[in-house]
């Protein structure tokens, strides 16, 4: 929550004058900085340079399969073994697929619309209305998928432990049109939240009016720690099975922010019935995944320990950037009462909360000064943040010096817009 400090009129005038002067200086510097998307920086991609010269003349997987040929729809078993623990899915229930987990989420939605899910009475497309719960703030591309397929979105407030489960339980129990929920359970995009054990237990056991309700468990940041204390979350797939709802969860993940973004491997994990359902549907669209890429990922990462060691190297590059963001926000805004922000223990984003009604204006002023941010509202369904208060900061891509300039500039915009609002 933003706490407004009560200022005397004279003090406010002085602070506003200073902010206006700082903004004029900022705009005069002709910056061209981009904090929009959570892309890995070139140095992070360089960590996986060796991947691109693999498989280096070896084309057989562990069981002797020639990876250059068709087949193997489930993906290489040895790669699934490496990721089973991180994604909390037994390797036998994990698919290693194409290059994008978002693509898998897209396909799961399309298949659920057009073919009957395990436990469903009919295809989703035959129902009058379909709705998904959308914890907010959340990931804009999840929301874009819902819009694309005419799925209504119902915002649910996030807490530091995951979505507000009182709200979730009520909505799923009363409305059979609610067919799913988007979850980024660890180091969430954008607020860095990690789902508590209680949240996971309630998601697994809650009563849903829809028999074919699905949790889209997008564990995009499962191994993307930023501290010495890696966060562990409870195993939702196992909890669902124990609660008698084995088919409730679709788990997604990918190596996009581990090896090469867009040239990695994506994963899908679920109950045996759901895995068979997706495999059957996938068999219509592809004869098999890119096993050459999968083999080189096996050779490059080697095992779960190799994956962990690689993520330590990623962290060494990312952590200083997140520390710089925290340091500058604290120094420039800490005493103003104009903003609060998250201190994520992993993932790719910091969420900055400014006074209600200010986020769009801060983003606009920043753009005018040459600092491009994710559009305000992108973190909410239909691009509409009703309080106009949330700004997503993506610190990964710029170099440290550029990032520091951009965040310092952003704080000037927050002071300008915040004090202008108070002076009105
Ligand atoms: N899910 C989340 C939560 C993300 O933040 C991202 C990337 N920004 C993706 C999925 C995209 O993953 P992929 O590259 O595997 O499609």
Automatic annotation (TrEMBL):
<dbReference type="Pfam" id="PF12897">
    <property type="entry name" value="Asp_aminotransf"/>
</dbReference>
<dbReference type="GO" id="GO:0008483">
    <property type="term" value="F:transaminase activity"/>
</dbReference>
<dbReference type="InterPro" id="IPR015421">
    <property type="entry name" value="PyrdxlP-dep_Trfase_major"/>
</dbReference>
<keyword id="KW-0808">Transferase</keyword>
<dbReference type="InterPro" id="IPR015422">
    <property type="entry name" value="PyrdxlP-dep_Trfase_small"/>
</dbReference>
<dbReference type="InterPro" id="IPR024551">
    <property type="entry name" value="AspAT_Ic"/>
</dbReference>
<protein>
    <submittedName>
        <fullName>Aminotransferase</fullName>
    </submittedName>
</protein>
<dbReference type="InterPro" id="IPR015424">
    <property type="entry name" value="PyrdxlP-dep_Trfase"/>
</dbReference>
<keyword id="KW-0032">Aminotransferase</keyword>
